[in-house]
Amino acid sequence: MVIGGGATAMKQEIERIFRTVLEIVYEGIVVVDANGMIVELNDAYARFLGMRKEDALHRHVTEVIQNTRLHEVLKTGVAEKDQIQIIHGHEMLVHRIPMYKGDDVIGAVGMVMFQGVNEQYQMMDRIHQLAVASNRQKNAMQKTSDEFIQTFDAVIGHSSEMIALKKLALRVARTAMTVLITGESGTGKELFARAIHSASLFGKGPFVDINCAAIPENLLESELFGYEEGAFTGAKRGGKIGKFEAAHTGTLFLDELGDMPLAMQAKLLRVLEDRAIVRVGGIEKRPVNLRVIAATHRNLAEMVEKGKFREDLYFRLSMMHVQIPPLRYRKTDIPTLVHYYMDRLSTRFHVRKKRLHDRTLQLLYEYTWPGNIRELVNVVEVLVEIIEADIITPDDLPDFIYERLTQGDRDSSLAIKTTKSCSLKERVVHSEREIILGALKQTGGNKVAAARLLGIHRSTLYLKLKQLGLS
Q1: Domain 2-114 carries which CATH code?
Q2: What are the residue boundaries of the PAS domain, all occurrences included (predicted)?
Q3: CA neighbours closer than 13 Å in the CB half-sphere of residue 330
């Protein structure tokens, strides 16, 4: 009896110490049983979730914590450390640890690191920069696979969409085939083109670019193919080489290819097939050894159907197709991009580095960025150069961001600005709903394709649809 009583007292004391530890640690901690039901949740996590602890206990973890994977850890039995998880619009650093009894998984512990969002991204970016610098130093004297990967460092983003896209682009770079890059204006098509060039067999050659939409139709041919002396009135003595010859042994980047006239499309196709050009006013075929990367914001497939783009050229180009998603479909990259450009622009303009208020970052996260990364850079540049305070607050953001967030309703935008119109949770739910609807619209209602576009598992999408009443 004495021994039994002592064991019970010891067990109670251990439980008391465990609960004390749960409440004094700064991190958020959740414990689930083998069925994924929440059995423990500390006050720090409950406050972050905006709910009472009692309302979370004995509920399945997927019903309480956004984008959790604890239930998956229960299935795999494999710990997931230093992972990024979006909770209420914030990207948080999390650990997910399975609990074993013998060979059986009897539960799992989830831990959220409540380091400030700004500091978290600054830490991640600093680690990334150090890793890049270290790898470059190690590989400075030899062309290895690791060095190829480093050529894509200029493409900023840690989202699953961007990681997959960079892997695809790297595979494309290792071929000699013509590449088509599509995406909305401002998504970074030229950045990807330069990365593919640098990582390719043509990387030691020149990178020559031309904007097909910016050159008048009657001048485009001579710009691309060059001309012979006397080809037309005003032609230079000795003639002039064109972009194709200038890019010999390197890469020719044809930006805004969708704006190229049909007649010029036929001549481009001939060059891709023959690997030779004829200057304007000349008869001699001049061989060229180069890679062509074309880019456009237009839907070439639709243009083919309307007879505005050659079908044979489209098929030739689309064999190697890199499609860059708009920023609104990879929102998890927004904080990283904001911090990256804040640091970069502060250094360029020799101004004091500033910090973002967490609420400011939240609003930038919710904004749909119709101008994509180009628009984001412009907004950050204004904030860096104009705002004098050390901390950038929501009041410092341009009015058009609030107007866009409220679909032009100025009264609502003022309400958001004073954070009185609705709760953070409601705004995040609304933002999430709009993103999912946009993905479904883009994929024609195909849920599997929409999940792939959003970078989430299809089961997660089905759960989101049910939670948002969209099923």
Answers
A1: 3.30.450.20
A2: 14-66
A3: 23
> Where residue 471 falls among pLDDT bands split at 50, 70, 90?
low
As a three-state string, the secondary structure of the chain is CHHHHHHHHHHHHHHHHHHHHHHHCCCEEEEEECCCEEEEECHHHHHHHCCCHHHHCCCEHHHHCCCCCHHHHHHHCCCEEEEEEEECCEEEEEEEEEEEECCEEEEEEEEEECCCHHHHHHHHHHHHHHHHHHHHHHCCCCCCHHHHHHCCCCCCCCCHHHHHHHHHHHHHHCCCCCEEEECCCCCCHHHHHHHHHHCCCCCCCCEEEEECCCCCHHHHHHHHHCECCCCCCCCCCCCECCHHHHCCCCEEEEECHHHCCHHHHHHHHHHHHHCEEECECCCCEEECCCEEEEEECCCHHHHHHCCCCCHHHHHHHCCCEEECCCHHHCHHHHHHHHHHHHHHHHHHHCCCCCEECHHHHHHHHHCCCCCHHHHHHHHHHHHHHHCCCCEECHHHCCHHHHHHHCCCCHHHHHHHHCCCCCCHHHHHHHHHHHHHHHHHHHCCCCHHHHHHHHCCCHHHHHHHHHHCCCC
Average pLDDT for 211-231: 85
Contact 83, 96 (CB under 8 A): yes
Instruction: Judge whether residue 188 has pLDDT over 70.
Output: yes
pLDDT tens, position by position, 374-398:
999 999 999 998 888 999 998 888 8
CATH 1.10.8.60 residue window(s) in the chain: 327-467
Tokens matching residue 371? 């101008």
Give every CB contact of residue 371 below 8 A, 6+ residues apart in sequence: 185, 186, 378
| Closest among 13, 240, 185 to 232, alpha carbons compared | 240
User: Greater confidence, 450 or 271?
Assistant: 271
Q: What is the pLDDT of residue 134?
A: 52
Mean pLDDT to the nearest integer, 72-94: 80
CATH 3.40.50.300 is the classification of domain 151-323: yes
SS (H, E, C) 431-471: HHHHHHHHHHHHCCCCHHHHHHHHCCCHHHHHHHHHHCCCC
CATH of domain 327-467: 1.10.8.60
Confidence of residue 459 (pLDDT cuts 50, 70, 90): low
Q: What are 229-240's pLDDT values in tens digits?
A: 776 666 677 778
